Amino acid sequence: MGMEKRSRAVLWGLLAVGAILRAIGLGSKSLWVDEIHSVCVSSSLEQILYYCRGGHTPPLRYFLVWVLLVGDNPELWVRLPAAVLGTLTIPLVFWIGKMLWDWRAGLVAAALLTVSPEHVAHSQDARYYAIILFLALAALGLAVQIVREPEKRWRWAALALVCVLNLYISYVAVFPSLGVGGYLLFCLVRAARQKEGKAVVQKMATGMALASAVAFVLFLPWLGEIFGVFRRYATENPTPEARPATTAKMPVVPVHSPTAWKTPLNWAYANDFLARLGATQPVLKWALFAAALTGSVLWARRDRALAVLLFGWFFLPWAIILETGMRYFCPPRYLIHYLGVYVLLAATTVVWISEMVDRIWARRAPNLAVLQIGRAILGVALVLAGLLAAAAFLREDIRYHSMAKQDWLGAVDFLDEHAQASDVVVAGGYWSPLGLSYYGGELSKPLNLIGSYSTAARIEKEMRLYPRVWYVTWGPINPDIADMLARRFTLMKVFPGSQGDVLIYFSRPPAVPRAAPKK
């Protein structure tokens, strides 16, 4: 079997493994509150436009959810686009690695992405960050092909379409678009400085004009909203008008301000970010980071245009984040585009090290037999290292698959089994009412669900009115509520989740005051 056929067979194997990892439990796990909120917003086209205008998110991902809310298993259908395009990102990474380095780097990068816990998690999430990564890498692949053959105008139009679709999914897609744009602009300037580059400049300038025209036409219906978003963040006032997302099935829940989960940009954030790009296992995490840094040097040495690409891809976003209101709220998922190029850089280093060791051994081996033995040992060592890395990744994948994202269905079933009819259920913060209301249709008895209370005093008021009170929440708990829960409630059940544990408390009977001693 030739090398090309073998690499193709390995790629098909990786694609099969990736599809399985992204399909396990896809429709059986409870939606978590962010996904439920997306379903809530997507109740109608009018609701989508009302919510997105003046907000933080463009409408395309909600349109996709609206279209997919047709089956009996919404958990499966709303996550399906992320699972499909997340799986297709594996051959996409191989294709880019093959173009920028060689087929071996492409295969190693595809293998890393196949078992990446972060990518598996996003490929099972209806927020569609897996789609953002797919479209970002598709734009990068098209840009690399355009630099090689700038005369093919359909690629310029396809590049504009991919970037626009990505921005219609999420505004954070502007980050990879800036990286790709800087890469193409540098290649245009470099061609203009070459004596024989006039024809290339003309072709690239024509292509850029075409791409700009296509992007403008596609953006035109939403152009004013995009400028509004940029203006809010540039003026460090990222909070839009609060817009509730309501349906007949769900309560009115105010949208959280992006400062509700203020992001501390510190060492803990960086450490968590590196773990998401690789694995929580420290040796593997830092080995991948070192490999990615080395790979960036190798790319820059091969082509200065790639150095410009890496600057725009990795560093320019942070210049924007730190100088705008985004610095108040920037979870790692906003930079999901890092992941694809990160594994490509690490894969490049793996291939480079194996080549370097092989060259050194080829010069020092006394004869052909010894050379072949050394190469066999190197091959075995690389396979063992790959298996160990895959085992570390798969361990985290198994841990992810062993629990729901947030088990609201389990919480509702627990209440159905243990609560009495007409018990009061007080929902905690951070869209906890959405989780309870969405799966509340599974209840066989009437429970009195009360919306989120942000102070202990409000909860204790309910306890004076009703003898049996349940408190269900996830996420951070305010200190006054935590103190009240310790005094007046018993923790009955914890439902672990990869996106946060769901906690169920039940009120204790009030203490009976002791009678005063008789004199």
Walk me through what this model shows.
With 519 residues, this protein is mainly alpha-helical. The chain folds into 2 domains: 3-353 and 386-401, no CATH class; 408-507, 3-Layer(aba) Sandwich (D-Maltodextrin-Binding Protein, domain 2). The protein is 65% helix and 5% strand. The chain contains 21 helices and 5 strands. It has helices at residues 3-23, 33-41, 45-52, 60-68, 74-100, 103-115, 117-122, 129-148, 153-169, 174-193, 198-219, 223-234, 267-277, 282-302, 304-323, 337-364, 368-401, 408-418, 432-438, 456-465, 479-488; strands at residues 424-427, 448-450, 469-474, 489-495, 502-507. A 5-stranded mixed β-sheet has the order 2-1-3-5-4, with helices on both faces. A hairpin with a 6-residue loop joins strand 4 and strand 5 (502-507). Helix 5 (74-100) runs antiparallel to helix 6, helix 10 (174-193) crosses helix 15 (304-323) and helix 14 crosses helix 16. The longest helix is centred in the C-terminal third of the chain and has 34 residues, at 368-401. The radius of gyration is 27 Å and the shape is globular. The N and C termini lie far apart (102 Å). Residues 245-259 have low confidence and may be disordered.
What is this structure, in a nutshell?
The protein is mostly helical and 519 residues long. It has helices at residues 3-23, 33-41, 45-52, 60-68, 74-100, 103-115, 117-122, 129-148, 153-169, 174-193, 198-219, 223-234, 267-277, 282-302, 304-323, 337-364, 368-401, 408-418, 432-438, 456-465, 479-488; strands at residues 424-427, 448-450, 469-474, 489-495, 502-507. It has two domains: 3-353 and 386-401, no CATH class; 408-507, 3-Layer(aba) Sandwich (D-Maltodextrin-Binding Protein, domain 2), CATH 3.40.190.
